[in-house]
Amino acid sequence: MNKLIIASALIGACGLSMSAANPIVEGWYADPEAIIYDNTYWVYPTRSLPYEEQVALDAFSSPDLFHWTKHEAVLDTNAVKWATKCLWAPAAISKDGKYYLFFGANDVHEGEIGGIGVAVADRPEGPYKDLIGKPLINDIVNGAQPIDQFVFRDDDGSYYMYYGGWGHCNIVKLKDDFTGIVPFPDGEMYKEVTPKDYVEGPFMFKRDGKYYFMWSQGGWTGPDYCVAYSISDSPFGPFNNQGKILQRDEMIGTGAGHHSVIHIPGTDDYYMVYHRHPIGATDGNNRVTCIDRMYFDSEGNILPVRMTFDGVEPRTLTSKK
Ligand code: FUB
């Protein structure tokens, strides 16, 4: 029995409140994408290892944000003939009974094969197979490295993908079957939506009719990596930088960023899932995945997220997403 389970049993027996510890799982994991599938929380992170060793993605599932089960190598480069390394920052979404993982591969540069791919499975735990046998986006457009995609479903049923490293962010519209991208009404395929100080790791959610766009700033190997955000009336922006909401805390961790957000259906409760460097980390890849609560003020602004070692209280789900 692991230490967390013993602790939870003891605390539960004493009638005290308990919370899951941060980091939520053992090991170096970064860029966590969190999503709810059928009352279960799923987290799909990057294995934070040297690039050549990033040849698979693991997933973690939980009924309560406390007990996590590891699903090893849900996507492997063996299933993606064009990908050899740098499996990065998956974006998870389900549609029409299928589960999709959009992923970055190969740390692509101009003239190379790689970029953003898409894989599909019958279950959240995979195994995921390459959907189209080639990258969905290989080219560098508007200066954006094709990595760090996030897939957002708007209320009208449109699927948009935000993506981009190297300080540039594009939005594209996905085909209904996710096998490609389609033009916008003005004929453009890619629109740049880069906010001030943006570096990578975009994320979007909608609350009370407003579009909350979030991203990471700074260098991910260093201590100042952080998350900032913008509120807009449109999925296309403009996205004015409204400030940092997750950043280093010398008592807890540094380089906190590349996050995602969990919204509990039917509530106004939100969680931020992110990675950070433990205090004293010596390698840029020393990144661990954590969860803390995210709150809003009465005007809808996001309040700075307080990083903790305690994490969040266990929470089971009752409604379907
Ligand atoms: O983990 C690989 C890369 O590190 C991600 O793609 C970036 O966003 C950064 O977190």
Description:
It contains 1 helix and 20 strands. By secondary structure, it is mainly beta. Strands 9, 10, 11, 12 and 13 form a 5-stranded antiparallel sheet that branches. A 4-stranded antiparallel sheet has the order 1-2-3-4, with no helix packed on it. Strands 5-6-7-8 form a 4-stranded antiparallel sheet, with no helix packed on it. The longest helix is centred in the N-terminal third of the chain and has 11 residues, at 3-13. 43% of the residues are buried. The structure holds beta-L-arabinofuranose. Beta-L-arabinofuranose is lined by residues 30-31, 46, 88-89, 104, 147-148, 200-201, 220, 258.
Short description:
The chain has 321 residues and is mainly beta.
